[in-house]
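> run fold Phage transcriptional regulator, AlpA
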Amino acid sequence: MEQYDVMPSLQLLLTIPQVAKALNLGRTKVYELIEKENLPVQRFGRAIRVSQEDLVLWLKERQAKDVGGT
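> ok
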């Protein structure tokens, strides 16, 4: 029987401290980005996670807005 590894197909979810470290920001600033700048998150009860893919897309959109002058 052939086995399949499902882990590579799953999106990597980051914790707030991991996002803060990746962006070289503090946790408070990350929470501010979530509330005021619409950083997309996944909520699991009280736990908040950020998809690595969503984070990259959000950063690209922010960069496009900055370049576009909006």
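The domain at 11-68 is CATH 1.10.10 (Arc Repressor Mutant, subunit A).
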